[in-house]
Amino acid sequence: MNKQYRDLANCIRFLSIDAVQKANSGHPGMPMGMADVVTVLFKDYLNFNPKDPNWINRDRFVLSAGHGSMLLYSILHLTGYKTVALEDIKNFRQLDSICAGHPEYHPNTGIETTTGPLGQGISNAVGFAISEEILKKKIGKKIIDHKTYVLAGDGCLMEGISHEALSLAGHLKLKNLILLFDNNSISIDGPTSLAVSDDHEKRLKSYGWDYIKINGHNFKEISKALKKAQKSKKPIAISCKTTIGYGSPNKSGKASSHGSPLGEEEIKLVRKKLNWNYEPFEIPKNLLNEWKKIGDDAYKKAKKHENKYKKIKINKSLKSLNNLIKKTKDNYLKSSKPIATRKSSEMFLDIASKLPNLIGGSADLAGSNNTKTKNHKIISPGNFSGNYIHYGVREHAMCGIMNGIALHSDLIPYGGTFLIFSDYCKPSIRLAAMMKQRVIYVFTHDSIGLGEDGPTHQPIEQLTSLRSIPNLNVFRPADLIETFECWQLAIENKNSPSVIALTRQGVRPIRDKSSLKNVSSVGAYEILRTGENIKLTIISSGSETSLSCDVSHKLATEGIYSKVISMPCQELFDQQNKEYKNKILNETELVISIEASETSYWKSIQVLMG
Ligand SMILES: Cc1ncc(C[n+]2csc(CCOP(=O)(O)OP(=O)(O)O)c2C)c(N)n1
Q: Could you give the residue numbers annotated as active site?
């Protein structure tokens, strides 16, 4: 076993060190250290399909330690994914190369998620595993029944998000989740003992995980552990004791192999030590064939599983709810009673909980965020027949997990917390936006309109900060009707995550008619005009829109006529044509904004108008 596996693993090692050397930057140490483990995984355990990387029932392989990206590119190349040709590997870290410095998610490529920010991949993997369990329950084991593997290093396990995510995974008994821990005790600054003395085994076991310790360079041990993991009743961690930079006479076991090219001289020594008599980027034919056979066998095995998975058509399902949605809007207008938008959101979810693929949740604020309705069923340890996840007080992991849920297949995750805690979610929101994932954040208590709870309730800069994230739609609806419209837009938008910022205090209707047309879809529109000869434009969002209407009416009594623009989504407004934007923004010389928030976006609007 040893020689064959060692030779195969060396293909990964040398492609990685040659690519890093050619790019003159990158991380050779981790791929050299974990090559043996992933060789056994891909050769003997992983179900995958190089010819159909999107095959729904594939095992997911997540490289949480994203800096070791060459490990992933090497193995995708060697097993025959079209995604990564040898030319791409030679272009490692160059602009537009699929082999980016850290893996960047592209559908249908084998790169399952964007990683690099350490720890995120662990939370994504928990999301993959949750999705798998939910779908398995919904559509049956014959169609979905797979594992999720996540490779994480010391750094990932130090990050706070790993604590949150692994703890929830243990609680939920995600038995299809396998953590491959690259336990090399080295990070950038040196030995991990500089900063951490956790007992990983006790830690993971206390979360409800199984834990196996192996020598990550011993093929028999690797195989035995992976075999055991297939039948585990709990999530399982395999701690692989490895040597970073394995094979490098002067740099193995040292931080110096972590994140810089080994250097021409050292690479010559590695070639000698590992008996690798080939040129840079040269893989001998017999080994290339063996790797291709691994890919071909995986393909044949995958093909046997006929793919009966049918995509869930969400827009059609939404349309079927239109009558109920219209009725609720009409009732609201009839009664004209102030309703908090968080409550309106609950009323929407009450209807939308019938959608087959909406998976709700909250970070321990279900009742305050109004994210859980009477129709929701809780997902509990080992039982995934529900559609609502109690994430616990784990905002960061909630958002990283939602990324995994969205990436896995057709499920649409939404999760709630207070807007002020969006700061705890930000790294994962940014990644959802970069990966174009439909993740919906329900952020309530969205202004200083309430204050008793001080630092846990008074968002000032959060809206601005969220609006500065490219490809994130930030919705701040003004009343029930806008809330419904914003929810519909968030659900329909397949390629962007959405924030829906909601009030705790009641707001009265700003429109007097409801229609099936989604007026919020243009981002901003005129809601009130008090006279013909207007001198002032008032732009507003959320709870301040009805206030703006009051101001406009009051001014009219003094002979100053104005229009009020409701702007529930600045990003959608920015996408409108110039003519429309001009009509909204440039009719009057004087424009003011009323929003309970930091004001820099509004200043940029002034610039936009010239
Ligand atoms: C959130 C985050 N912080 C910091 C970094 C920078 N960084 C990249 S790798 C690394 C050390 C990781 O150590 P380890 O997981 O042990 O990887 P190994 O040295 O074994 O390759 C750090 C700090 C990062 N990528 N993400």
A: 395
